[in-house]
Amino acid sequence: MPTITQLRASYQSGDLTPSDAIRSLAETIESRDPEIKGYISYDTEAALAEAEKVDLSLPLGGVPIAIKDVINVKGQPCTCGSKYLAENYTAPYDAGVIKKLRAAGAIPFGRANMDEFAMGSSTENSAIQTTRNPWDTSRIPGGSSGGSAAVVAADEAIAALGSDTGGSIRQPAALCGCVGLKPTYGRVSRYGLVAFASSLDQIGPMTQTVEDAALLLQAISGHDSHDSTCIDEPVPDYSSFIGQDIKGLKVGLPKEYFAEGLDSGVKSAVETAIQQLESLGAEPVEISLPHTEYAVATYYIIATAEASTNLARFDGVRYGHRSENAGNLIEQYHHSREEGFGEEVKRRIILGTYVLSSGYYDAYYIQAQKVRTLIRKDFTDAFEKVDLIASPVTPSPAFKIGEKSDDPLAMYLADIYTISANLAGICGISVPCGFTATDDGKQLPIGLQLLGKPFGEGELIKAAHAYEQATDWQKLA
User: Fold this and answer.
1) Res 442: pLDDT
2) C-alpha distances in angstroms, 143 versus 135, 316, 331, 422, 464?
3) What is the pTM of this model?
4) Structural domains for the chain
5) What is the sign of the dihedral through the CA atoms of 285, 290, 295 and 301?
6) What angle separates helix 343-356 from helix 295-310, to the nearest 10 degrees?
7) Hey, which residues are catalytic here?
8) How far apart (Å, rounded) are the C-alpha atoms in residues 457 and 329?
9) According to the model, what pLDDT value does residue 477 have?
10) Cβ distance 303 to 418 under 8 Å?
11) Percent of the chain with pLDDT over 90
């Protein structure tokens, strides 16, 4: 599948039209997706209608972009991977990022599968279907943006949008061998993103290359008056960072991220990637993020508390699933939520309600917010010494479908290297950095994570692109 850059060149030369690209994509999806199950739905005719009137002079003119099914696109279903919304909900408006994509000439095409309401790390929590990793279809693609990563990796999409609350862009990108960029909190509008945890959620690009990530980030970034948390900060030309030298760049190596529990194959690939950065002129610096050990507990208090509040709107009254087994309003609330939500969503709502309840709010929620401040300070202190931080994305390669389904804690611990960035609100990127072999000889991708200062996406793109161009991993992936 061509990259965004290649597709745009084909349009300019006249070798291809946007309608040709849509038809080709639809054929690939029809052929490949019954096995991968990356899409919940797609509307070829609607995309072709948009393709006929697109302005090719725009930055993303005629480029089809797959959309994680938690982002509203007017007139299209938005299931959030949940039975609650799968029956009859159609988005009545375009999300802020969709408006920006359309303004740049892009065509939203296809609804990518996900963990229900973005709660999960494997896409096994989807009520619609289980997406499979294109490198080994017996394994998970990661989550919660597993569908977005899988369709890009399986050549079923040019690029995609995902959302990242605790690693949900970077982790599936690493496990599927594509590029995933989580912007700084406030860089991209959350208007029209169905909220999981409002202080953590952020929309970002999932692409084949770092250059494509820069182009897509450029299109969706910027202030939106509909989102009070979207910061009115100037948006640099991210493409200008492509090809820049990284000589003298200080790259921090947090000792807590290379400790016990890290798979040997992942550790070896990431250490080799760091050596490659050093050969390009970067300077490795050992650092400490001392409150890392508290990150998982902190995250699963704050995120579930916010989920409990955000999902209170799903009551069977205004939209979504409404139980037919209710005799009064209270029973309608109870039965609608019991029937509509999956087990993981119920687990997080219950936990979040508990930590917000009288008698426990101070002991859990307030304490977690204090630790969050300490975690953010860890990064602030680290970035006084270094320009970027390098680490693994995941402690292991993609695991087998069903392997951790009965052990939620093991699933939660798989996010150890990604959730701190969300708690701190900083930006991060995953870029392919190697493979590790399974017992049956299959190759599974590994990702290198680079974390940057608030609104430091340009530095991330510069370093990630320099690394990508110095290796063959992106071509192999």
Assistant:
1) 87
2) 15, 27, 33, 15, 22
3) 0.97
4) 4-247+431-443+455-476 (3.90.1300.10)
5) negative
6) 100
7) 68, 144, 168
8) 48
9) 62
10) no
11) 93
